[in-house]
Each structure stands twice: as C-alpha cells, then as structure tokens.
Amino acid sequence: MGKRLVQRMRMKSKHYIALHLRFEPDMLAFSGCYYGGGDKERKELGTIRKRWKTLHTSNPDKERRHGKCPLTPEEVGLMLRTLGYGNDVNIYVASGDVYGGEETLAPLRALFPNFYTKDTIASKE
C-alpha cells in the first residue's frame, strides 16, 4: 500500500512533503503538554496519562518552553513557510487521528491547500 500511496502523490507532483505530526491523543498525553483546550483537554489527556504508571509529573508550560512538546499542526505549517515552502507544495500527512480532528488541522490546510492524507488518496483496494 505504501508504494501505491507514493505513486499517487508523485502523480500530483514530482516532489511532496510527507509529515507525521505526532499530534495524536496518546502522544500528547505522554508528553505531558497542553495546548490551550482548557479543562476538557486536561481531563481527556489526563485520563490517557493514567495508562502509564511511570510517567513523571511535569510542568506543561516549562516543557513547552524547552521544546519538549510536539508542535501543533499550525506550528508545523508556519515552520515550513518560514523554511521557504509556498502554498503550492503538496503535503501528505501520514499521522493517525490528530487530537482535535479537522479543527486542529484547519490552519495547516489553510497554509497548504494541496493537503492529502491516506483517506484522501487511498482507494478501498
């Protein structure tokens, strides 16, 4: 299946960027970071954190300031723009379920409208 996805992306453009955002709920919970989602986010991620008995208690703000938290999809998009990639670049997001769903992905999609996922380029074969 991987080869087929690569072929389909190359049919759209010879070059593309494949991203794995690492912004899944379990990754965010494991990191101990929070992203401004208020009590709902703290409760959801806190529940997931309980799966790991050996996780240290951290200061989410300090961890984020020290670069120990996954970047949000928007931050990834801004970083790519800063590196010189324009909105004509094809982006393939290889991540699983992104925390916050489409609402979280919307800023990245706005920065890079040629945005693809496995669901958008894979067939049911």
UniProtKB/TrEMBL annotation:
Classification via InterPro entries: GDP-Fuc_O-FucTrfase
An annotated GO BP: fucose metabolic process
Presence of keyword Glycosyltransferase: yes
Source organism of this protein record: Cephalotus follicularis
Protein's name in the database: O-fucosyltransferase family protein
PANTHER family (UniProt xref): O-FUCOSYLTRANSFERASE 16
Record keyword Glycoprotein present: no
Keyword terms of this UniProt record: Carbohydrate metabolism, Fucose metabolism, Glycosyltransferase, Transferase
GO MF annotation list: glycosyltransferase activity
Family: Belongs to the glycosyltransferase GT106 family.
